[in-house]
Amino acid sequence: MVLEEAIVKYASTLDGVEMREMEPSSEHGASQLVFYRGEKIFLVLQKGTRPLRIELRIDKRLSKTLQERYESVMQGRLLGRNGTEIICSGQLTDDEIIDLVRHGYEMSA
User: Whose CA is closest to 93, among 70, 64, 75?
Assistant: First the structure.
């Protein structure tokens, strides 16, 4: 829960970010916090999941590298081919995940 709160707090401080809460869907089962920069989604956080699941819009080459290195990083489902899903199980540190949130924000410019 600490990482979830840290991600929400950090993403909310970025310029021009709007956060919307989406109700649970039958496919995902958890409510989602969706973070927009302008019209583009850069972060989807699955609230209350254990371990926490997030999806980010990041560079495709970086995504491929992370997917090859970590089993907890995979092709995203919500953002289509532009998304990278991360199960926050400890393979990536909290600081690395926050850095990826920043990268996603920058990619959505």
Answer: 70
